[in-house]
Design brief:
By secondary structure, this protein is an alpha+beta fold. It contains 6 helices and 6 strands, in the order βαβαααααββββ.
């Protein structure tokens, strides 16, 4: 089963124009590692995904929207978030396991040239993994959700299929028979 849902907040028109002008004036900066500890990452990832899980279970996306950064709120109404995550809700995808599992990060938290923190990874669950990509904006000294991608993917590596049997194999030559041994005579 492969399911992928995106809810990345679109850049506001004024913000996109301003960013474009800034890029013309100076070259884009490479992402740099975010200064955040493991506990901070766990709190952000778990709280974001649990807020989505609760929104999916209740059908009320107001709290998820209100927890986001101003750009996320401006781009996404609660109704729009409900539409974006309708597949997860319809399929009754339970994300509550993220509360006890540790995420495996495939992209360590990094600060993008926009100043936003970006990270991605998965929760190693069975039969499917919860995969995520998160983007946070700095707002008054806190990281606030700006965008998220959540989906299900296959859990673990797939075993290779067995090789097909040969179609027309020649019979193997018979091994020569070993000479029969006579039983030893008992000594008298």
């Amino acid at each position: 089963m492969r399911l992928r849902v995106w809810a990345l907040a679109a850049l506001l028109a004024a913000g996109a124009v301003g960013a474009g002008l800034a890029q013309e004036a100076k070259p884009a900066q490479e992402p740099k590692p975010a200064q955040i500890d493991r506990n901070g990452v766990l709190i952000l990832v778990r709280s974001s995904l649990l807020a989505l899980d609760q929104a999916n279970k209740t059908g009320n996306y107001t709290v998820l929207r209100d927890l986001g950064a101003p750009g996320f709120q401006a781009t996404n109404t609660a109704a729009r978030l409900g539409e974006i995550f309708a597949n997860l809700r319809r399929d009754k995808i339970d994300l509550s396991g993220v509360a006890v599992l540790d995420p495996q990060l495939t992209l360590l938290p990094q600060i993008e040239s926009s100043g936003m923190m970006h990270m991605s990874g998965f929760f190693p669950s069975v039969p499917a993994q919860v995969k995520f990509e998160l983007l946070y904006a700095p707002v008054e000294g806190q990281w606030k959700l700006y965008g998220m991608s959540v989906g299900l993917g296959q859990s673990g590596p797939v075993a290779p299929q067995p090789a097909p049997a040969p179609i027309a194999a020649a019979p193997a030559p018979a091994a020569p028979a070993a000479p029969a041994k006579k039983p030893a005579k008992p000594k008298e």
